[in-house]
Amino acid sequence: MAEDGHKSVFGTCRFAFVPGRSLLPKTIAELSRTVTKYGGVALEPEANGQLQLTEASHIVSNSIDFEQYNDAIDMMLPVVTSAWITHSLNRGKLAQIRPFSPDPRMIFSSVNLTCADIPLGDKEAITGATLAFGGMESKDLTRLTTHICALTMDHDKCKEALAKKLRCKIVLPHWFDDCFKLGKKIDETPYLLPDPPILRSLSGGRAGNGDGQATNVVTVPIPDNLDLEGATTPLPDAPPNLGYRSNLTVFQNKRVLLAQDINIGSRFRAVVIELIKRGGGHIVDDGNVDACDMYICHYRDGPDYVQAAQARKTIGNLAWLFHIITNNEWCSPLRRLLHYPVPREGIPGFENFVITLSNYGGEARIYLENLVVAAGAKFTKTMRMDNTHLITACDNSEKCEAARDWNIQMVNHLWIEESYARCEVQSVTNPRYTTFPGRTNLGEIIGQTFFDETKLRALYYAGGNDKIGKAGAHSSSAVKKATHSKKAVGRPKKSIQLDEEPEVLADVSEVQNGQIDGDDDLSTSSEPEPEPETNGKDHNSRQVPQTTANASMATPSRPRKMGQNTDKENESSPLIVGSASRSAKDKALTKLHGLAPDIALYEKEKKRSIRDLKAPWGGKRAADLVDKEKVEAARKKRGSPDAEASEETASEDGERPAKKNRPSLPPVQMRVVLTGYQRWVHHSSKEETERRKLRNLGIQIVQDNQPCDFLAAPCLVRTMKFLKTLARGPEVLNAQFITDVLEKGKLLPTEDYLLRDTEGEARFNVVLSKSLARARANRGRLLWHVVIYCAADIKNGPESYREIAEANGAIFKTYRAHSGTTIRPVASGEEESQPCEPVYLLTSASTAERALWPKFEQMARDGNMLPRIVAPDWLLEVAMRQEVLFDDHFLAENFWSKN
């Protein structure tokens, strides 16, 4: 990174880094050290994990999908990619901002252009448009050049690029022309010199064979597209199955309101609520829009929607909710069209359209079908005379030929996407919608259209940022304007069915009873912790987070997979059938009919009179005796005369006696993970009693794999519980809080018990407040894509370290001498100067483990990775500081020689 660069390149810069899937915390740690070395300041997150926007001069992010993006733009803060830092160091001065914008609408932000044998007028047009779309232009060919625009390979720049084997692409000007028309960056492959396939395609033309059939037609393969991941439908048919994942943190300290128009069954709704709670979130009561951070609904109408939109709450639909759960990362619901609530009556003007598709496949076809229906048009799978539009990815297919013959309007998918995003029908005469580049399937750029938020605001929640309910003329009119008629539209609606017991129900509602987790320092043995009681109620408060871990659901004994029911009678259900679905009733009736002969025989035997005491045993005699035995058993169990009388009366009437209602527990106000607490050591009966006392006061002691609000410890400790829970970023209390609550018998203010341990911070070289702020920013993703191996015979066992590593998002594997473990070779980066990714081995200094070191090093190098054999303290310190760091001190050969 230009070690000889000027030492004060970033002397005026204060950087705020945005961790995410495209900018990992380990990369942020390296960049922070780099900018600090060259005079800059790397800002720590705020206490709540948010960016310090008021202190920052630059926001570094490789994506615009972070919550404070709009705030940064409003404050006119430049948002740049991490490549801007590298480029500035290479130049020895601050680079331009515009070419390094992460905004995907800047389609040429990664393009550094130089022109060869291009006429002057065309050169100026291409250069100007490239700069307007975020690109850069240079007169000479350099190592930073990514594209050479040329007509032939005879120019000196093209020859020089081939001779020096520069990694730049030599393209025809046609590529720029087609990209400018579409407003999207398409694949350069058909335009690459010296033998561009597009010229072969164009030279053949579109000829006929006399029978109206096209000849010389080029078949273009349907590409894959990652922009549609989790965004093909607004109505997901099943909740995401997270499998083994235990560090779901996307809802940490978020309050979520599920609107009533999400017409899902009670079981499915319970699964969704449990997933939100598992991710650290809290459910807000319906109608309490002011108290929520996220508002989840299906239709973009109604007073609650208007209020939430005007208050700038995050508004998305069920598909968006499942998308952020699956990826455990926040993204804007305006980024993908089917992640935002749909218009109840569609887009005005689409009700008269009949649309079909061609040359789209896979998820792209499903996405367009659902988008057409959401816009309010009628979709047909086959081409008919009454079709009004054909949406096609290229102009070569039988449907395209029929469209030309029948005068049906033929457009690409950008027409339906931009019509939906701008909430009005776009003109089909715009060349943008009728451009079909040769040798290109436009499915590669599908799903890249954003919502136009100004249009949404004007049509659905007018009134700026003012909240609904304020005195003013816009308040009531906005509701009337945004609330559409409740009548069902006259087009078919997709129905989704749910079987009786969803499989994911068992996963998200499971409480890991009897698990033994380390409650002592990792150098000592761990002891079991009893499972706390759970409450059957749920309570939500805006000031104090309140929830129960698994209160609203019961784990079925034999869960069934969701979506298996294919009963045609349920196709008219609004979204998902609940627990009383017609399919379940039909199954119960079928089973009952099979038992009908046995039931009739039983009733007949009960009524048969006993004429002879020596008659065979059975019938009414047996039935009466069974009933009598039940009454006697209940009488002995309860032992109360009143109970006996009521039991006999109930038996005579043939009714089951009413059960006594147990006194309900108060709602949970605090979920606490407790570690290092000595009061209950070797006193299991006392622990059980005091846990119940705490629960009666609204405090629930939970396991370290469950969502929590607080972490309580007597001091800073490096126990597995402490390090696992720290990754979630909860408030850390002194364990004296638990003792004082038990002794005083009432809840106490937590502000007076925040953990302060200066000696522990000095001992572990950590500042607890900074660690918590980083944890809240990382949200359990500190070690994303970091591969950690652990020797099988390490002290405390590899499972202790596995829990800590995976709580921070690492990829953890056990390494054995003869396990056949290998690292899949990783292709080296595009830049030769980029270092290999490190891979870690946790090991002690035993002779058996030392024998593994050479084998591990060879395995890592064979996989193009950098081997780092470290002591376990490296992982413990990383987890405690919530910062990816490395020093030669942690190398096993150095660490164990000093200890």
Question: How would you describe this protein?
Answer:
It comes from Sporothrix epigloea. Residues 5-102, 103-193, 350-422, 670-755 form the BRCT domain. Residues 470-584, 631-666 are annotated as: Disordered. The chain is of the alpha/beta class and 899 residues long. It folds into 7 domains: 14-100, Rossmann fold (3-Layer(aba) Sandwich), CATH 3.40.50.10190; 112-203, Rossmann fold; 233-340 and 452-485 and 493-510 and 550-580, 3-Layer(aba) Sandwich (Rossmann fold), CATH 3.40.50.10190; 350-450, 3-Layer(aba) Sandwich (Rossmann fold); 582-607 and 621-653, no CATH class; 671-778, BRCT domain (Rossmann fold); 787-898, Rossmann fold (3-Layer(aba) Sandwich). Helix content is 33%, strand content 10%. It has a 4-stranded parallel β-sheet with strand order 2-1-3-4. Helix 17 (582-607) crosses helix 18 (619-638). The longest helix has 26 residues, at 582-607. The model is unreliable at 1-5, 202-216, 466-518, 523-581, 610-615, 640-654 and 827-833 (pLDDT under 50).
